[in-house]
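Q: Can someone sanity-check these two? First one:
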Amino acid sequence: MRDCLFILLVMFTTVGCHNKQSLQSHIEEYQERMANVLDVANQNSLKTSLPPYPSIKDLKQNLPVTTIKLFEFYTLKHCELYSLVAERNTSLGNLQLPSTRYIYERHLIDALNQCLIDTLEPKLQEKLTEWQQVKTEQLPLVWADLMQLSSETKYGFSTNVGLVEGNERDGLSQIKETLSYLLQLNQNEQVNSAALEQHLQTLMNNPLPAKLWLSQRVLADNLQHSTKWLLQNTQSLQCSGNASNKKMEYLTNVFQQFFIEKIQPIASQINHYQYQLGPIFENMTANLYLSPSFKDYIKQFHQQGFENYQAEMQQHIQFWQSLFKRCNIKPGQR
């Protein structure tokens, strides 16, 4: 049978998700209340942040510029390809924002395909076929630059602004849709520039991956610190006696009111977000075209970071289970 503490945790996972206070505030108040009850100095506050996003030199794909000679350029006047190449100053793809570059390359491939249909001259057909093959092979790498180098994706994966709130404002469904859209871009027959920019803006406006990973890190660091602090400051705490009974009663109330009712519901949502976004992160880390440094960056949070957060959460709960068992306390019962 599951013990009463675990049942209590489950009961409270749906409570308190709409509290306006932040996760950081809940943690700080939880720590402060414990210090007041034990009449000892409060724990030193921890400043937690995500590590820096990989550098551009580690992320940028080595894409050679495909050039076209002037006389070849003039042979394309019968095709839409002519105007597209003219946009890039006779270079088939030049320096652009990652999203603009991706859309341009998609249009360029479509124009190459149509120009092949409209061209009868064999030598030009041969050249068009060569360009088409090169551009088609390069498209996944252009997509990788879009995923890794866009300011919106960098912000969405690495900003240190904001934590998970545990409610609809976290925007889980929108972020799932956006990340799935970005991952499947190369499989879409038609790509709309406005839709792409809208999805990127969604990630900029609501960087849930970064919020999720930072929240896990904040909880892991603070709970590890709090568990050690509690072990040190409850060793001499007796289960009996008027003063001790009062302290145990107050500690139990602090645990229930601040950890169970405020921190635990947000932690429950963190777990939910992790499981919902997990398959998307797995697809990213398995992708052949994304750079190793980008995949390692995702992996350290999706795998190691989540495991560390779970371990520290479990260690903290086990401390309280042990203390309650030693003093024969059943949380939630009067």
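And here is the second, same format, sequence then tokens:
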Amino acid sequence: MERLARGFYQKMEIALVTGSSGLIGSEAARYFAKQGLAIVGIDNDMRQYFFGSQASTVKNKKLLQKDIKNYTHRDMDIRDFKGLERIFKEYTTDIQLIIHSAAQPSHDWAAREPLTDFTVNANGTLNLLELTRAHCPQAVFIFTSTNKVYGDLPNQLPLVERETRWELPQGHPFYAGIDETMSIDRSTHSLFGASKIAADILVQEYGRYFAMKTASFRCGCLTGPGHCGAQLHGFLAYLMQCAVIGDSYTILGYKGKQVRDNMHSFDLVAAFDHFYKKPRSGEVYNIGGGRENSCSVLEAINLCAQIAGKKMPHVYSAQNRIGDHIWYISSLKKFQSHYPAWRQTYTLEKTLKEIYDERRTSRQLLKL
């Protein structure tokens, strides 16, 4: 039964969340439900198709249906314009917020099926933007973009090799993080990066051309206990999963010293909330854990081993992923200048400890 079917509720504010069973979508559904919004979730568990049964998001969907009173789930592919149109026609201007987090998220996987990758990431985003413009043009539209829009251009920075990580000199303008002035041209993006650029630019253009309240959040590594990590996507969640069950982790290139900033899904969604309450048109923000929550793969392995209380088995492959970043830390300066009240609440260690506790509990339940 659809809890929000017409005739069964009074007019209310609705948040439409795509990829609602995934890491960011499920976090957003819970967060905005607590803010008093009714949630319409769109998710067809394509993550299982991308990465196998271990990455299925069905568990998250069932938890959302169980835990959130005003939650309605639609098993819908965002490439299905007519299907999406029925949803938008049903709720029209009751939709106050669209959080678009559905995606094909892996640059490795994109090379296997470029058409699938592009139609999900680019065409799916265009479908949602056009339907928003037609049926609820005053709604706030938030897109979960990626730092991969910059391609491998960050690899041209003057990086210095340290004992456990690659690093920028302290005096470099990007030492505190890469900001939105970095070019998206003249680099290798991977096909995933290219499809996300298309979507990113569309989101900006609908904001600028049609004066819609849109924003692209160019995210670093996102994680949290709700992340269904897999080898090709979900770095920290997959790494901790390996630590819990004792599987070996494969480091891909750059001596394991490649650096990422890591952000808890709750802190990202809290940033979404700040934008929702005071929206702008056609904005773009680099967002992530920042320098304080950055680590190399080697450093992450050591942290996971410390938290798990046992050695972390791993092997090394000298072949890096095409278009992969050697060093990427997000500058939060622009977003914080627009929304100075926003603060991160999770440290890297706190985030990893939370993931570990969830993975260990889930594994114990499987044994019962």
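A (reply): Looked at the second one. The chain has a mean pLDDT of 92. The domain at 14-367 is CATH 3.40.50.720 (Rossmann fold).
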